[in-house]
């Protein structure tokens, strides 16, 4: 019975949830029958080198769902073979962040309880992405593959791997990828148009400054579409502009606007403004990507341009629930505060 329990150390799904998913899948597939005795908690702990409380949590959840029962002095037994067939989703993010958590929470909430999710994080590294996709510990079949495709390099190789997946089960999330074949679902940001439209909305305030700077690090996973949209706006508006790769070594100047994509760059920028005694609006303008509560407070409020991450998760889940394969551009917004 132990061989039905699949634990994947590459997965970010908690081990107790992996145990729960393995057992319910075995029951759903007919491999574990009603009345079957499950491995004891010590057996699982010893075989997989995991903590007792992890297995106890999995078995407690199975009992709460009335899938198994405990018989005093004998062990745990499968109570029913009538386990509702659940969607099994392979979900892979490029990194963990506050914004990715919003997507994840919204996605899971909209799907509801009767869904098994194997969650992976590849940290923008192609080699790790490949290892997670081509993984012998995966269940035989997933109902859906949901992928956020941001890479520091080898993006074309990732596309080749994605094209090996069944396209009718595929959902591309957050970033549009050229060259994906077949009819598949997508919920994505239009990075070029979003920054162009956001800056156009802020044009009356930006025009009070002499120059606009986009801080775009060399080693960022962010798409270069952002640079193209930024430059196109500045050319159309007749505004002096520059793309800066390193804010730490850049010399700040008065009457200029700085747009940050990464949170660490925003921190460096704010530190430098304090050292120079620069004040937002009076001396410089600041625009930051991606909303979070801290930006409401910093410098009496940072102006933000941001996609709606909660809506992104919800829209992705709706496509899976409804069985659609649409390409949906996610909503984008501007939040004006006292930094511009």
Automatic annotation (TrEMBL):
Pfam entry (one): GntR
Alphabetized Gene3D superfamilies for the sequence: 3.40.50.2300, Winged helix-like DNA-binding domain superfamily/Winged helix DNA-binding domain (1.10.10.10)
Domain of life: Bacteria
Alphabetized UniProt keyword annotations: DNA-binding, Transcription, Transcription regulation
Occurrences of domain HTH gntR-type (ranges): 13-81
GO molecular function, one term: DNA binding
Xref: InterPro entries: Peripla_BP_I, Tscrpt_reg_HTH_GntR, WH-like_DNA-bd_sf, WH_DNA-bd_sf
SMART domains: HTH_GNTR (SM00345)
PANTHER family xref list: GNTR-FAMILY TRANSCRIPTIONAL REGULATOR, HTH-TYPE TRANSCRIPTIONAL REPRESSOR YTRA
Protein's recorded name: GntR family transcriptional regulator
Source species of the chain: Membranihabitans marinus
